[in-house]
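Per your request, structure below.
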């Protein structure tokens, strides 16, 4: 996974987090030093405790599942319409696909 250029903590930064917190630094102090929240620091520590070094790696932000995903037929229509036009406006695309919705599931 690529590291986002504005990412506050990379896997290397999270390793630093583990060392500093193991050395006695508080989550809030670490957050202030590294530009992240205490909640983010605590989340990194928790993942390290549960998963070891593997828990320090980057993760995707896509949800594992959706409550009401777009049906496959509708998604196929939307994909076909997107290929016909370079960048259709979301509202126009929804009208053409007859979905009534401007968002799409995975």
């Amino acid at each position: 996974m690529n590291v986002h250029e504005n990412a506050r903590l990379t896997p290397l930064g999270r390793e630093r987090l583990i060392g500093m917190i193991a050395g006695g630094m508080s989550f809030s102090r670490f957050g202030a030093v590294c530009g992240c929240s205490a909640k983010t620091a605590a989340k990194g520590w928790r993942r390290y405790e549960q998963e070891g070094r593997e828990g320090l790696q980057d993760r995707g932000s896509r949800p594992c599942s959706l409550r009401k995903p777009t049906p496959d037929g509708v998604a196929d229509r939307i994909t076909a319409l997107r290929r016909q036009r370079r960048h259709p406006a979301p509202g126009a695309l929804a009208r053409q696909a007859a979905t009534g919705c401007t968002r799409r599931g995975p």
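The longest helix spans residues 38-51.

Regards,
D.
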